[in-house]
Structure formats: C-alpha cells, structure tokens
Design brief:
Elements (H helix, E strand, L loop, with lengths): L1 H4 L4 H13 L5 H14 L3 H21 L5 H12 L9 H18 L5 H13 L4
Length: 131
C-alpha cells in the first residue's frame, strides 16, 4: 500500500486519513487503519483532536453572544461549556439519541405535521425526560 502513496503528496494523504478518522460514516476498522497509517507516517493525531475540541468550545462560546442564536441553542452551549453535556466523540450512541430526540422536538413545532404525529413525538419525549 505504501507504494501507492510514494508519488502522492504526504500532507494530502495525511489530510485524507485524518478526514476518515473524523468521518461518522467510516467504520471503526477503517478508522483504526487510518490511524495506524498516520502513525507510520509520523503524524500526530492527538494534536488535531485537541485542536478540534478547542475550536468546538470556541464555537459554543461564540454562540452565547450571537444574537442570531436561539435561546435553546444558547442553553445547550452553556451546558456544554459547563461540562454537563456529553461532548465526547466516543458516545456515538448518545449522539444518535440526541439527534432522534431533536427530530421529535422539531416535530412538535412543525406546522406540516399531523396532531397524531405531534402527540406521538410528545409521548416519546416524555418517556426520555426530554421535554
């Protein structure tokens, strides 16, 4: 495999491997292979991970002062910055659940959704203590 990358720019290969590591659509096995390849190339992935996390926190801080951000989003940003929200990338199951519940919350506010669907969404949100 290394013969395939000898004629390619190493920084571009590393960038592609880093993108694969952070892509939620890439399998864990492929992410591990990409991480191993980066280590073989001498790249430091921990730095980029920390840098990414710091940039995320900076975005949450900016959201608190942005007048175009909803109150709900500002509350979420505050929870993240206080450390009460789970921001680890290892909790993909939690992330999925949060997105599903967010979809149900959006259902409650969508005028194109039937009352029956809104009632179901409210029931699911109550079951998950998300109201």
């Amino acid at each position: 495999m290394s013969s395939q990358t000898t004629d390619k720019a190493p920084e571009r290969v590393a960038a592609g491997l880093k993108a694969a590591i952070h892509n939620p659509n890439v399998s864990e096995e492929a992410k591990e292979n990409a991480l191993n390849r980066l280590e073989q190339m001498g790249e430091q992935t921990e730095k980029s991970s920390n840098e990414h996390h710091n940039r995320q926190l900076g975005g949450y801080k900016a959201a608190l002062k942005n007048p175009n951000v909803s109150e709900e989003a500002k509350e979420h940003a505050e929870r993240v910055l206080d450390g009460s929200a789970d921001t680890s990338s290892g909790g993909q199951g939690d992330e999925h659940e949060h997105r599903v519940l967010g979809g149900y919350k959006a259902t409650l506010k969508n005028s194109n959704v039937s009352e029956e669907a809104k009632e179901h969404a409210e029931q699911v949100l109550q079951e998950h203590d998300a109201l």
